[in-house]
Amino acid sequence: MMITQRKAFLYPRVSTDEQADGYSLSHQEDVLMRYCEKENIQVIGVYREDHSAKTFDRPEFQKMLNVVSKNKGIVDLILFSKWDRFSRNVAAAYEMIGRLRKYAVEPQSIEQPLDMEIPESKIMLAIYLTTPEVENDRRALNTLHGMRKAKKEGRYLGIAPLGYKNGRDAHNKPLLIPNEKADIVKWAFEELSRGVWDIDTLRRMVNQKGIKIGRSQFWSLVRNPVYCGKIFIAAYKNEAAHCVKGIHQPIVSEQLFDDVQDVF
């Protein structure tokens, strides 16, 4: 008895933060092509997606879905490497699987194959779809906690503010170091504390001294406690926003910084 050759659309997908090895479109496509050659599956087309899988509102997927819906029988399969390439939303994935079935099309992962006729497969599908998202959330949470811990130790994280440069301490940990513009920043604070100049006039004077800065940026500068040696820690859960003593060298004294805030 002659076995009809199955036909498939290939669906490699990445999002902008998944360009690492193992997730690239070319790698996924190569793996899918070799699988089809081995399994004697005819490749009808390839839809390469660079979009998040939180919903199915993706340009290439919608193009593929449109072709499938208007050309019943054009393919039997939509193949992808892993289930999180298809979706990262369990409810949306179940709904789309049901919709594709109406077109006699089976979505299938070549690395995590499931027989959706078996009820228990739904449990495995949920695991495959949610595990990457849980891992991402855990990494994000670990990063958040790590950053808060570093700030509580007095370390400034991110691009150095005007008057400082990013450096490293003896333990190769981030450290703010005053640069050649620190004296101009200190002068600005001293002049503001006198209450003689309005802030925009003083900003223009600072520009003339060599620091090109806009209004909102200058306003943020003179209210930033980092210049008196403090690190601001934002509120989180039951912990109120507060400042801690930084390990970097302050450009102005705490008294001068407070005097400027009083002038405002």
What would your notes on this structure say?
It comes from Chitinophaga sancti. Residues 161-264 form the Recombinase domain. This is Recombinase family protein. This protein has two domains: 7-137, Rossmann fold (3-Layer(aba) Sandwich); 154-263, Hect, E3 ligase catalytic domain fold (Alpha-Beta Complex). Helices cover 44% and strands 15% of the residues. The chain is built from nine helices and ten strands. The strands form four sheets. It has a four-stranded parallel β-sheet, with helices on both faces. Strand 7 and strand 8 (174-178) form a beta hairpin. Helix 6 (182-194) runs antiparallel to helix 7 (199-209) and helix 6 packs across helix 9. The termini are far apart. The mean pLDDT is 91.
